[in-house]
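fwd from M.: "can u put these together and see what the complex looks like"

so here's what she sent:
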Amino acid sequence: MYTQAIDLAAQGKPEGGPRPVTTSPELQAREAAFNARIAQDQKVEPQDWMPEAYRKTLVRQISQHAHSEVIGMQPEGNWITRAPSLRRKAILLAKIQDEGGHGLYLYSAAETLGVSREEMAEALHSGKAKYSSIFNYPTPTWADMGCIGWLVDGAAIMNQIPLCRCSFGPYARAMIRICKEESFHQRQGYEAMLALCNGTPAQRAMAQEAFNRWWWPVVMMFGPSDKDSVHTAQASAWGIKRITNDDLRQKFIDATVPQAELLGLTVPDPDLRWNEERGHYDHGPINWDEFWQVVAGDGPCNRERLAARVKAHDDGAWLREATLAYSQKQAERAARAQGTDRSAA
Ligand code: FAQ
């Protein structure tokens, strides 16, 4: 359903193509080859020449994406010990593990661009690197688990399906598997909401209350409106971004409103109306002050989330040291064995 909502052919290519970023004749020739590759929709691989700004854009986006997946384990991790049944607990555990795995694929994809895990971790822990605004909201009720799966994963798929066609090979390939897993996450979230909405009046009220809290942060999660998006033009010209923030947001709203109706939930937007002429829902104003406040580190849970991540990293230091010592020992043993073989020959 989310895949069908995205008609890439209809989006067309950005006008003018990528902007030149280099000057010397040799670099210009390399850049021309790179631009030709982008224009032909061929993948750029780590060993290929690429403009430094393209590499930096990818490192920024992929590492932020990885950080989001890893920090994104926390709001749901809050409910592992309190899931209402063994079945729900097993699903939640599997889903959270998947998110951790997504973080790892994405860190690996970013590493192919010459940045180390340590540098990326340091950027996150120092507050220099961003992660998605959505993970700075609290999860006080079980219905929040349903809303995260249904809405947050639903929004993530909407944003990530076009990234499966991103021009950078390792990112595009990582996104294919990630999207398959996010699809399961979205369905389990919707099914959890369905159970609550078919339940007692108190359960229905819990579902509506959680929906009221998540709707607007999820709508914001697609990023600033196109007029304020600083990276869209260049990222689109490079084939990294295929659909703009506002267009993805609209597709998400159009897909999600009927799902809310099926659940019997009311979308907390008094201005929401189907616009026959546009063939889309019109929606009310987005509180961009709230969005930027959360992005700047001052949301309801920013400090808590970052502190938990830094603590987990510090607590894991012994494992990193032990793994490194083990691999060094293995390498030394292998080298010794090779030396013995040679002297025996
Ligand atoms: N939160 O010019 P643009 C998930 C920043 S994964 C925080 O439009 P761009 C799975 C942006 O970085 C969710 N910051 O930027 C899951 C930039 O700042 P910078 C994450 C935001 O890159 C589910 C500035 O605003 N997904 O949910 C946000 O062209 C459940 C200007 O913005 C991805 O990362 C935001 N929401 O477009 C896990 C997908 N939006 O860097 C657990 C990949 C914007 O200059 C449980 N990323 N900013 O300092 C993308 O598609 C893009 O990077 C966008 C932003 C669309 C996020």
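replying to her w this: Confidence is low (pLDDT under 50) at residues 1-17.
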